[in-house]
Amino acid sequence: MNLKVMLVDDEPIITCGLQKLIDWEAEGYEIAKTAINGVEAIEYLKSEPVDLIITDIRMPEMDGLEMIKQIREKALSDAYIVLLSGYGDFGFAKQAIKYGCTDYILKPIQEKALVDSLRSVAAKKQITIKRQEDRRRLSRIDLENNLRTLLKGKEDRIAAEYVRSNMRLSVPIHFVHVSLDDISSLKELADDEVYALKKKLFEACASFLGDNADHLLHDIYGLEETYDVGLVYCDYMALDEGITMEEYLSKMQAYMEVYHPDLKVSLLVGKGVSGINKLSNSYSSACALRTLKGFKERKRVYYYEDEVQANSGRVMICKKSLDRLIVAIEQNKEADIVDSVNSFFAEMESTGTDSKTVSMNVNYLLFQLIHLAVEQDETVNQEEVMQFIGEKISEQGIAPHGQNYLLEFAHEYADYLIQLRKNSSRGILQELEREVKEHYAENLTLRELSQKYFLNSSYLGQIFRKKYGQSFKDYLSSYRISVATKQLLQTDKKISQIAEEVGYHDTDYFISKFIEQMGCTPAKYRRNVGQVD
């Protein structure tokens, strides 16, 4: 986009000559306005922005210096300013510098002098834009980090206050999972492909939300592999448009599927809470919808209150079928697993699978399966097991293939329990460290490594987190960034090249991860030789 210029001079012959003196478009500029004095220029700036003002000093009504003074004191514009004068008066130049003038050109104006000045302004503008982008990126990362702190359920007054100060809020607040439906097919994609798809989802959400796009979260705290975008929905969003929350979110879901027909999206809306400090309650209820969603016909928008709390009356738990399934999983008996899954689905279908019945049966199954895992290893992270189970079950629903998928999951969970009994982690974590050091630039995923070493991916993720205090994905990212910092200091390679060499094929994503870990951009890190502010 060309930079906008305003020419200010009381002599039309001068402004006309300036327009013809050089090829403005070739230099990246367009003449947005010509004014005959400072009064006219100031009036224009009250409603229209420009990037550069080229002005004469001596003009009637209001001269150039007085105009600049008012522009700066009234904060009408942060445009760069170049002064033109027929007088080689140092006093004018001194005053111009005081008011933030960029350059001072004597008349008659020479083409080279003007072109040099324009190119200098363009270079400064690029630096300013880059710094603004860096500040926005840092601010965005700070906001997301504080939101994640609140998602974890921590009573963090500082995080809550930061969010209140940097985000428009109104109650009730709902956490919303913007969820890609076909998870099983996503698992076949490489990391970069998943990132590209998730980036497309994020951009579609941001396009719909407009000024409210800062309410989105790229990466949601929780699962090792998550394909969702998070949204902190506030009541004002619908009210600003004069519609209900239900109408707003339905409109959002429809917009994304029209915007990107290849994205099949559902919204999982957590319960409403009365303040940002209670965001974790809404988040956990939205997560609960993941599990329940797997047993329901597909909807475009799921609401926690409707799906979990709606129905009352007698609730039937298919205890006999579920207990048989749980025993079969524990004993890893394939025929019994098949028979008990068939019995469970037949019984569920016969009840009509109303929301409360489904919820109670799912909760019973989850509790018993978690209990089995804890019996094998009392140090196992119960929350991670629950998330793993919920993700597996929610990948497909009852109709049309949910029964087959539950069979697949039951066999996988039986294998997971066997590995817990065997404590299969001996030596494996050292192998994973070696894999990272030797292949960090490749598309390393825990899923592929678990297949290589014949371990369940959820189990491998848990023992990795237990030892290193972070997920495998975060560990890999940290290692890649540590290699990048060395290259930034020891080579003159371009940032895009370094990103590629450490395993990031999207430079923007690399910069985002670098800021997240190092607290500054790669360019700033290189400039400061590692001395982060």
Walk me through the topology.
Blueprint lengths: L2 E6 L3 H10 L7 E7 L2 H8 L6 E5 L7 H10 L6 E6 L4 H9 L4 E4 L4 H41 L5 H10 L6 E8 L2 H4 L4 H19 L6 E2 L11 E6 L1 H5 L4 H15 L5 E5 L9 H15 L7 E3 H5 L10 H13 L2 H18 L3 H22 L5 H13 L3 H25 L5 H12 L6 H7 L4 H12 L3 H19 L4 H7 L5 H12 L3 H6 L6
Parallel strand pairs: 1-2, 1-3, 3-4, 4-5, 9-10
Antiparallel strand pairs: 6-8, 6-9, 7-8
Helix pairs in contact: 2-3, 5-6, 8-10, 11-16, 13-14, 13-15, 13-17, 14-17, 15-16
What does this 3D model show about the protein?
It is a single chain. The chain is of the alpha/beta class and 533 residues long. It folds into 4 domains: 3-130, Rossmann fold (3-Layer(aba) Sandwich); 167-308, 2-Layer Sandwich (Alpha-Beta Plaits); 319-422; 428-527, Homeodomain-like (Arc Repressor Mutant, subunit A, Orthogonal Bundle), CATH 1.10.10.60. The chain has 24 helices and 10 strands. Helix 11 crosses helix 16, helix 13 runs antiparallel to helix 14 (334-351) and helix 14 (334-351) packs antiparallel against helix 17 (398-422). The longest helix is centred in the N-terminal third of the chain and has 41 residues, at 111-151. The chain is elongated. The model is unreliable at 394-401 (pLDDT under 50).
Count of alpha and pi helical runs: 24
In the CATH hierarchy, the third-tier topology of the largest domain is known as Alpha-Beta Plaits
CATH class designation of the largest domain: Alpha Beta
Mean pLDDT: 83
Strand order of the largest sheet: 2-1-3-4-5
Quick one: CATH superfamily of the largest domain? Reverse transcriptase/Diguanylate cyclase domain
Q: Supply the helix-strand structural class.
A: alpha/beta
Strand count, sense and barrel status of the largest sheet are: 5 strands, parallel
Radius of gyration: 30 Å
Number of domains: 4
State the end-to-end CA separation. 32 Å
Q: Based on CA inertia axes, which overall geometry fits?
A: elongated
Helix proportion range: 55-70%
Low-pLDDT runs of 5+ residues are 394-401
Strand content range? 5-15%
